Amino acid sequence: MKLHQIDGYIQSIYLVEYRYGLLLLDGCCRADIPHLLNFIREQLKRPVKDLKLVIVTHMHPDHAGAAHRLRKLTGCSIAAANVPGQWYQGIDGILMHWTDLLLASWVAKRMKKTRCNLWYNAKLKPDYLLDDQELVPGFPEWRALSTQGHTDRDLSLYHQNSGKVYVADLMVKVKGRYIPPFPVFYPNRYRQSVNKIVALSPTSLLLAHGGEICPSQDDFQHLLDKAPTTPTTHWRSVKTKFKRAFSAT
């Protein structure tokens, strides 16, 4: 197994290489597609058809944005968490999808990236639905872990032979410390997910935003100390700002 870490548009891309095929540990941004396919052709000297599976850990633009298009271009399959329904459902879902696209564009601007089209289908159509602890189809060295909290369908991916775990957005690095992501829709599930990863005693963690790290017990404790006890979401943030503005008048 060779693990390739590639600088993506606003996140790290993790591409796993085997003789028999390639596994993409997350669905990337739409803007990452040309860069990723060029890496497969030029750096790995392999046909893009060797990409066999893309796992979507959750539905945000930098984790699901390229999945459908990659399936069309390469013939790969898509896997996601076995959670009923779509993340972006109804009127609220449409608004949240647009908000998440705007947030991704804002992050790209702060990173001084060229403006790109990040639009993607809000409704995912996976080929495989993965339960907690299920082996990844075609790549049995990897196991799917349910690590909900950030959303209701977050997955982490555990490579049993090496002890590495791709945790997607379970934590992010800010000013040298590891903190919970924004949003956290399900704070109790989030704490359970962090503790699940701690219990594995991983050799390293692969972050979507922060690269490969080897966190200490102090890092994990800091993460849990910073974990919210009530949901931190787009709508609650807006309400809080309105309340502060209103009380200041």
From TrEMBL:
Biological process, per Gene Ontology: antibiotic catabolic process
InterPro entries documented for this protein: Metallo-B-lactamas, NDM-1-like, RibonucZ/Hydroxyglut_hydro
Pfam families (UniProt xref): Lactamase_B
Residue ranges of domain Metallo-beta-lactamase in the record: 10-209
Stated family: Belongs to the metallo-beta-lactamase superfamily. Class-B beta-lactamase family.
Protein name, entry field: Metallo-beta-lactamase domain-containing protein
Organism the protein comes from: Photobacterium gaetbulicola Gung47
Source taxonomy: Bacteria, Pseudomonadati, Pseudomonadota, Gammaproteobacteria, Vibrionales
